[in-house]
């Protein structure tokens, strides 16, 4: 008996949108400073996609969200250093540098003019609305004549 990897013949829009590829996880989920990338959740309802990035300890100004054609990039760069005041002497100082960048190709169904984001309680929340024509329409009864 041979074990065969299952391949979905009909990939969903969600699969194409977020490209859940685990083969490159080690390469793709670590930054250049050997720190892991922030975890994220992706949700969808009939009106929008929602991306939540867990990034505690950051400030709103630490993030950059850029849309270039259909590529949405979320990045951050944060440098921390302990400054000394006059008369102080450093006996030990640890610098901190955190950066990450994650990119997603958006499907054609999104309304890129209305993407919004907010940062609250350590979570960067991005709302990506769908175009009106992409939203499911309510069913209707058709009269038979």
Automatic annotation (TrEMBL):
Gene3D superfamilies: 2.60.40.790. Residues 31-145 form the SHSP domain. InterPro entries: A-crystallin/Hsp20_dom (IPR002068), HSP20-like_chaperone (IPR008978), Small_HSP (IPR031107). Coiled coil: none annotated. Pfam families: HSP20 (PF00011). It comes from the Bacteria. Belongs to the small heat shock protein (HSP20) family. PANTHER family: HEAT-SHOCK PROTEIN 20 FAMILY MEMBER (PTHR11527). This is Heat-shock protein.
């Amino acid at each position: 008996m041979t074990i065969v990897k299952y391949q979905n013949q009909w990939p969903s829009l969600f699969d194409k949108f977020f490209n859940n590829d685990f083969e490159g996880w080690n390469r793709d989920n670590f930054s250049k400073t050997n720190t892991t990338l922030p975890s994220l959740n992706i949700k969808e309802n009939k009106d929008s996609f929602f991306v939540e990035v867990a990034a505690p300890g950051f400030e709103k100004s630490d993030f950059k969200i850029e849309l270039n054609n259909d590529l949405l990039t979320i990045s951050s760069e944060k440098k921390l250093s302990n400054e000394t005041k006059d008369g102080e002497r450093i006996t030990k100082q640890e610098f901190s540098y955190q950066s990450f960048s994650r990119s997603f190709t958006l499907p054609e169904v999104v309304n890129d003019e209305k993407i919004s984001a907010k940062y609250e309680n350590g979570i960067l929340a991005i709302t990506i609305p769908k175009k009106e024509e992409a939203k499911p329409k309510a069913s209707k009864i058709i009269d038979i004549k």
